[in-house]
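User: structure tokens for this one?
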Amino acid sequence: MSRLPRLTGKALLAALKQAGFEETYVRGNHYYLRKQDSTRLVVVPVHSNSIVPPGTLKSILRQAELTAEELIEFIR
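Assistant:
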């Protein structure tokens, strides 16, 4: 398993959109994303330009059913 990338909330949001997730709604600083063919709900905190903590990023990847390697591919 590769290392988790250090991403801001905005960068993570863009990567998940590349992975096929669509923004369903926003509540405060939290963006709710859903894949069209699934009932999975992914919540991404976007707090200015701060880096998403590693534990939060792991949780988001688990929600999205993505691996760190897949996420890195969507960032590029």
